[in-house]
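Narrative summary of target 7.
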Amino acid sequence: MTSQRRERKPCRLSVGFLAILGATGVVLMVAAALRSHAAEPVALNRYTGLAIDGFDPVAYFTDGRARPGRPDLELRSGGASWRFANEGNMAAFAADPEVYAPRFGGYDPVAAVRGAATPGHPELWLIAENQLFLFYSEAARAAFARDPDATIEAAERHWPAVMRGIPR
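Modeled conformation, tokenized:
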């Protein structure tokens, strides 16, 4: 084989290798993002230890309303105790808690933009981008509703610093 032919062959191999390497990098970045979302601190009621004050996180999606969970249907996940209105909701959450748990661990995204870790109230909520968001006040919910995409983007930029200030 001539030295000219040897130089051309590795080029094709390196392009394929770079494509595989790039795809692997994307997969690793997505996995890291999912892990970071799953590792978010959850706003807990300091007296009961319940996430979102014992409201059923799945009911927001299935019933379109805030529904208190039952004490006999409780599940530990992500360092928090979650309650559910029925067994089906508990099973759905157990199968995929990242889908149903409130974004930012139930902390108000509008407050996060200001750098504060303010727990949201379970009856002040909205679903945006297929995620549940809880708010501290009606005013915060209204501000979020005016431009959810911009608020989520800003909250995500500030969230790492806000998380560092939350005791675990």
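The chain has two domains: 1-39, 52-164.
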